[in-house]
Specification:
Shape: globular
Structural class: alpha/beta
Distance between the termini: 10 Å
Oligomer: single chain
Helix content: 25-40%
Number of strands: 20
Length: 469
């Protein structure tokens, strides 16, 4: 069986490694960091465990898409905890609160209580999302650029379907699952992600690192190898194919096939100049826009000082247009079985650009003050809905897009990868195949982000690899 090297041990790279090892490939996964997982990584501050980027998943109940995938990947017996079925997400706009229930009928009924004149529109909305979710495996081709919903505007569809402007904002209110932009967001992204969480919503006790560690253990149990502190510094081409990688500027490894879970522009920067990859292709990939990043306040609470909420709070400023200014929004996420919560809010790269060329840990007092002010703004906005929050805090740790760039090599600290654009789906929704016949791509930059989206992409990448044999 063929040998394959996978660059990057984030979720997509580890899933590809597990699937292909199960198919009999000789798998080697290379990770530049000291630990596997990418944004799934958990980290400790003292005796407290925090998650770097993982929060909750959708579609994990029996018969649902993520359940099918995680069953294959042997991830179902991890300590999953289902969120409240009658209100897994609570959207707060100003001082008004709107519950999101699990299950399509319950979801529509609970919001109909708030918007009785929109009953029929809500029915149409949920029916469409359910249709997209039921056919999520239908486009499981080597690549699914051809899905027509990638070429439709999510914002325009929402305006056509929902006549009440406030309800449109409410339905967009769990916006931190994606980047809301009226001019670019494809309908497929909006529908598939929202539908998966309406199907069912789950947290994981003990941190997202468990997913990465379980996949690594599975790869190694099947004879594969996962190496950390192994940064790929060059992809070497010979006769129109990649034939080896260079690690840490010194060691070289050979393989028959290669998958990159890193950003496509970063991947191409590693490839030697060669006729197979034209300069116009390199320039096009390098010029693609990336989505904005995220500011996160990881908050350790005093024991029993604040009640645990088995739902997420999405808090928005009164009068905010979520499609025009997402930085007016934030997410409050509690950890199950721990005195910990996260507050997240979108952050543009321009906010942290003044410190981008300074090394981590030595960005100066002005950067520390900037993060402190950002934290204070988040606490001030969250406290009305979490009485006693400020007094309950023991310690706060913060991260910005600079943190994501450092740890995951993500350009500009992008939270959702390359920005997909419904006006140009053929250039922004990328295939897993590259001009080099034995080099493939995977990960959130290709088509969909999030746990389910990356898992779907991993399946598609693996299918393309197998079909290329």
């Amino acid at each position: 069986m063929s040998s394959i090297i996978i660059i990057g041990a984030g979720l997509g790279g580890l899933e590809c490694g597990y699937i292909l090892a199960k198919k009999g490939f000789r798998v080697t996964v290379l990770e530049h960091d000291a630990r596997v997982g990418g944004c799934l990584q958990s980290f400790r501050r003292g005796d407290t465990l925090f998650d770097a980027g993982f929060h909750y998943v959708g579609g994990l109940a029996e018969g649902q898409p993520l359940h099918r995938i995680f069953s294959y990947l042997d991830l179902l017996d991890l300590p999953w905890r289902r969120l409240d079925t009658d209100c897994f997400d609570e959207v707060i706009i100003g001082d008004r609160r709107f519950p999101f229930a699990q299950g399509h009928e319950a979801f529509a009924e609970r919001l109909t209580d708030c918007f009785p004149h929109q009953r029929e529109n809500l029915r149409q909305y949920t029916q469409f999302l359910q249709h997209v979710g039921e056919h999520v495996f239908a486009p499981l081709q080597p690549d699914y650029q051809g899905n027509p919903l990638f070429g439709e505007s999510a914002h325009d569809w929402l305006c056509r379907t929902i006549s009440d402007p406030l309800l449109r904002q409410v339905l967009s209110g769990t916006s931190l699952k994606m980047e809301l932009r009226a001019d670019t967001l494809p309908l497929y992204t909006f529908a598939q992600i929202n539908d998966s969480f309406i199907q069912s919503a789950w947290r994981l006790s003990g941190g997202g690192q468990q997913i990465a560690d379980r996949l690594r253990q599975g790869i190694e149990a099947m004879g594969g190898q996962v190496r950390t502190r192994a940064q790929v510094t060059r992809l070497m081409e010979h006769n129109g194919r990649i034939n080896q990688v260079e690690i840490n500027d010194e060691e070289r490894l050979q393989a028959d096939l290669f998958i990159s879970n890193t950003h496509p522009a970063v991947t191409l920067s590693l490839v030697d100049d060669c006729p197979a990859i034209r300069k116009i292709y390199r320039r096009r990939i390098a010029a693609l826009d990336n989505t904005d990043g995220m500011f996160t306040a990881n908050i350790r609470l005093k024991p029993n000082a604040l009640p645990y909420l088995n739902r997420n709070l999405f808090i928005h400023r009164e009068g905010a247009d979520l499609w025009q200014n997402p930085t007016d929004s934030m997410l409050v996420h509690f950890y199950p079985d721990a005195h910990v919560l996260d507050i997240l809010t979108p952050m543009r790269w321009e906010e942290v650009a003044p410190w981008a060329d300074k090394p981590r840990g030595r960005r100066g007092d002005d950067y520390v003050a900037f993060k402190a002010q950002k934290t204070e703004d988040c606490l001030r906005r969250a406290e009305p809905f979490l009485p006693g929050l400020r007094e309950a805090i023991d310690r706060v740790y913060t991260s910005t897009p600079l943190s994501y760039t450092h740890y995951t090599l993500t350009p500009r600290g992008s939270a959702y990868g390359i920005r997909k654009d419904w006006r140009t789906p053929l250039t922004t929704v990328l295939p897993s195949r590259t001009p080099l016949p034995n080099l493939f791509l995977t990960g959130q930059n290709l088509n969909l982000h999030g746990i389910l989206g990356v898992s779907m992409t991993a399946l598609m990448t693996c299918k393309a690899v197998v079909s290329a044999q």
